[in-house]
């Protein structure tokens, strides 16, 4: 079965890493998690509480990274998953990660992104002229990246599948799996 890469780092949203990781394993894919370094990553939980204007953040799960970005061979993977959380805010500055993501777009491979994950694809220029969704607070960022923003559970634009946040997981993964299956 094909291999799928998940790119993430500390302060990624726990559910947005672990749900696709487990769902793809369940489907029979081999899944590797890459981060800036091989280490135990510390994820977070973003939740919504009455009285707060935005989401709150609590400590989440820890999980080992299988690879450092510098060890990733994009050609060894059929697709990439880009979780959200706070991690994309600093990961977009990582030149190794930008090279990895550009390689997936250049090779026309499936890309799944959720929540703040599109900040990474925006940093590679991969959203120009595309239709996407993301965490709704990123609408202006998506437009600045040249994308057409749609506030809906999932948007499929060719091989790019995007979603708003973890409550949309079932729709996001259903659409991403359709894209993966269409590629054999």
UniProtKB/TrEMBL annotation:
GO biological process entries: proteolysis
Gene Ontology molecular function: any one: peptidase activity
Location of the DJ-1/PfpI domain: 3-178
Hydrolase as UniProt keyword: yes
Keywords: Hydrolase, Protease
A family per Pfam: DJ-1_PfpI
Highest taxon of source: Bacteria
Gene3D superfamilies: 3.40.50.880
Family the UniProt entry places it in: Belongs to the peptidase C56 family.
Protein name: DJ-1/PfpI family protein
């Amino acid at each position: 079965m094909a291999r799928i890469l998940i790119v993430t780092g500390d302060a990624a949203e726990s559910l947005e890493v672990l749900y696709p990781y487990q769902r793809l394993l369940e489907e029979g894919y081999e899944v590797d998690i890459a981060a800036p370094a091989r280490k135990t990553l510390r994820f977070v939980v973003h939740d919504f509480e009455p009285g707060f204007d935005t989401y709150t953040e609590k400590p989440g799960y820890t999980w080992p990274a299988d690879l450092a970005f510098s060890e990733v061979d994009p050609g060894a993977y059929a697709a990439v998953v880009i979780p959200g959380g706070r991690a994309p805010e600093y990961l977009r500055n990582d030149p190794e990660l930008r090279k990895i993501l550009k390689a997936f777009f250049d090779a026309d491979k499936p890309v799944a992104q959720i929540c703040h994950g599109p900040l990474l694809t925006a940093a590679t220029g991969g959203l120009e002229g595309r239709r996407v969704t993301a965490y709704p607070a990123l609408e202006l960022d998506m437009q600045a990246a040249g994308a057409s923003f749609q506030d809906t559970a999932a948007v499929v634009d060719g091989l790019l599948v995007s979603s708003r946040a973890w409550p949309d997981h079932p729709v996001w993964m259903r659409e991403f799996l359709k894209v993966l299956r269409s590629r054999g």
